[in-house]
Amino acid sequence: MARELTAAQLRNSGDWSMAMGGLIAICGLAALLAPAVGGASAEAIVGVLIGVAGVVQLIQSQEIVAWPSRIVLFFLGLLSLICGALMIIHRPAGLGFPAVLLAGYFVLDGSLAIALSVRLRHLAGWPWLLTAGVVTVMLAVLVAFQWPVEGPWAVGILVGTNLLLIGWASVRIGIGEILQARRIEGSPEAAVRGARHFPPA
Question: How many domains are there within the chain?
Fold first, then answer.
C-alpha cells in the first residue's frame, strides 16, 4: 500500500536531507585536511569523523520520512559508526589494519548506497547517490589491489572522498524531494502520482 506524503512532509524531508548531507560533506572535507593538521593522530581524527558521519546518518534515518528504505540508511550510519570506532581503537595495530578495514567498509558502504539509489530513482538526485556508491566500491578495489594506502594522507584522501560524495548525494536527494513537493503543490494529479512513488519503508 502506498504511503501518502504531503508536500509539507516532502519539504521537511528535503530540508533534513540537505542539512544532514551538508554535515557529512563537512566531515569529508575535514578528513581531507586531517593529515595536514593532525600529524601522527590523523588516522584517529579520520576515525572520529567517520563516526560523526555515522551518527548523522542514524539521525537522518529516523527523521527523513520520505525515504522509502530507511532501514538501508540506518545500516549505512551504523556501519560508519562501527568503522570509525574500530579505526580509533586499533590505531596502534599498524597501517595494514586500516587498509583491510577501509576496503571492507567501502564495499559495504558503496553497495548500500547503490541499493538505496535504486529505491530513490523517482527523485531527481538519485544518480548522484548511485555515482557515490559506484565510486566508493571503486575505492575498495584500489585498496584491495594495494594502491598505496600508506600514511595518514592516503587514509584521509580515501575517506574524505567517500564522505564528500555521500554528503553531496544527500543534498541532491533533498533537492529532489523539494522539487517533488512543488510538483504536488502545483497539481492534484501530481499529488496522487507523487504519493504512489513512496512505498512503505
Answer: 1
